[in-house]
Amino acid sequence: MGLPRIRVSWLWLREYWWRLWLGERVKLLAGLAGLAVVASGLALLGVVLGLAEVVWSAAAFFGLTALVLVKGRWQRLQRNETFVFPLDDHPRVAAVIADAMRAAGFDSTPEVRLTALTTIAALEKLNGKVQFQLGLPMLIGMSERDLHTVLVRELLVVKRWRRLERWAVFLFLYRQEKWLEEACQPLRQALWAEARSVVGAERLRAASRAEVYVQSALSWYLARYVSPFAHLGGARDLYDGFRWKIQHDGLLGRIRPLPDGSVDCRDLFGEEPWGAAELPDGMGLRMDDRLERRLAQEVSRRLLDDPAGQSYRLGERPAAAWAGVMEGERATLIEAVSQLHGRPATSSDVLALAVAGRIGELDWWHRDYPCPHPSRDVCALIPLFDVALRRKGYVHEHPFAQRVLAGPLGDRVDVVELAAAAGRGEPYGILLGVPMTGRDPDEDAIRLAAESLAQGDATGWFERLYAESATGDAIVPWDSRSPHFLLPGWVAPGRGRALVVGAGLGDDAEFVAGLGYETVAFDVSESAVRLAQERFPGSTVRYEVADLLDPPPEWRRAFDLVVEVMTVQALPEPLHAQAIAGVAEFVGPGGTLLVIASGREEGGPVFAPPWPLTPSEIEAFAADGLETVQVEDLRDGERHRWRAAFRRLP
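The structure assignment produced for this chain is given below.
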């Protein structure tokens, strides 16, 4: 099929008629001239009529209208702005360009302009001179070899295609219309065949792959890091962040381009061109700070029509700002799931869709972006885990590596790996349904535990937590002002001596005493014991201060009933074995031990405190004469709990 010249010309006029009118500078001058004529006419009329107010009104009209016109036209002038490329400062790039010109059969010196995004193009100006437009991101992410190859390909476009043919191919890539594809395919096939003959098929394939991967990487980087703050203006370290992601975070090796990448040459190679070949390191090119700031401002103009015009640094955005971004993504995702289900959705609904591989059904903004994550299901789960972890005090270790979060207790979590495991149906060990507003009840416990453990004190934080709760400066997360809900209906009335381990504010102890037991309740925190006594004046429970890791010797095998509710798990993992043995030692001959604890799988993730108990740790209570009576593995949505009973033989 031949190229339908009239049809292509008409389509170009219809799509880009505004490019064929006068330039923005001429429009600005013409507009100012027109305003001047109108204002002068009004002023002259005022002079003739002897009305000074008309003259002043004409002057004011001209001034205000001119300001509005200049502002609007100036913004249009700055859009799509290009800058002179400082070739003298970058001899490596200059050598690549010169060699590409020779390889493509040109003997002239091109004009080189620098752009803000992922442009690599050779243009023929009206005077016949070649102009290169090079996007700084491509000079950061592409190697010299790949840049040389793509430049040769673009020079062959200038050399072989007439202007109308270039218009036609551009319109096809933009509109993807069938008749344009049929008209342009012979042109494209001939061009790529010549490019293969000049640079070699493998080099062309590798360079085209690198081009798509850098374009995709920048698209994701802008959406994930830059767009949320575009209203602030240009990010001064925008390109520093992109360099870091490529050079230190392996972004090009992890990015997954969309199937319809901007350089689609599968049909031209007759096979899938990308494959799994290793991407070479990019040049990491750097411009002077002033030029990079101007390019960053241009990116801001592209992302937002009317940016603030100021500047900021992405690397200096506070943790709260990044947390807000992820909370916004979480809310958007849950809204998309709500629309899919036709009802209000929860985090569990998102997780169920991900495990079933159905995230692709969502009408969600991220669906149309390339990304570096293993799958779209993982992409959907990341905001859930990110928000849940940040609400527990986790923060990113590096501003451009948001997926790695460090906890208050020094642990590190790769959110992508955690989301991938959850998407495979594996345990993930954290409550995803965190409140989006209000204070996280675990916040104070985590903060105080971190400070206490940093000083080498595993239990001192309990006293600080209860003491600060008495003054309203902290929240005790397990204080429900009632017995643990798994306790009533499980413990039968009885007689004998009972011991409640880690009694806290006394609710469990009072419940046990109400069943008829002579009850002793202890806690390592003096403030907790004092507060329990104040809450239950006249109680029959004997509240004492004691340490589970060093209990009174007279308590050894002295109780008919021992109740351990979520105390061992409040201690760091290295102390679990000692604490479990200590609890078991309280049970007298013929006595019973009841254990309630949060659960996790062996080797499962821990977001402490607490440090939930594994199956082997629950089994460890049955030692030194204790036998297992019952172990219940209770799972309710995202929660995992144990309820177990053990008995010592008489």
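Interim note for the steering committee: DSSP finds 23 helices and 16 strands in the chain. Residues 497-648 form a domain with the Rossmann fold fold (CATH 3.40.50.150).
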